[in-house]
Amino acid sequence: MSSTRVPKVEDFLKKEISQIISSHVRDPRYKFINIVDVKCSTDLSVATVFYTIIDGDFSDSPDLRSLKKFASMVRSKLSKFMQIRRVPKLIFKYDQSLERYNNIETLLNSLSD
Prior knowledge:
Helix content: 40-55%
Number of helices: 3
Structural class: alpha+beta
CATH superfamily: K homology (KH) domain
Strand order of the largest sheet: 1-2-3
Largest sheet: 3 strands, mixed
Mean pLDDT: 86
Low-confidence stretches: none
CATH architecture: 2-Layer Sandwich
Shape: globular
CATH topology: GMP Synthetase, Chain A, domain 3
Number of strands: 3
């Protein structure tokens, strides 16, 4: 497999999943999901989709069970757009990097005071 194919598929998935969320999803819990990054396995069988919640409002955020159903719906929509044999299995994971950054920044600011 070419070395440029995996990054191209990751970029394509990121754009298309964001597009699906903004235009095809009606459930308000999923409207606040922001796709941060997508990482695929080398054989393109699994894609891990890293997301955050816009505005950090977790009161209406989807739970793990509903995310699995959501992933299968997104995967079926992707199968219509992608021109590869198999659409990767999607695994949604919450990206905590922004929260970690904010915590570290707070700690550093408290040290300088």
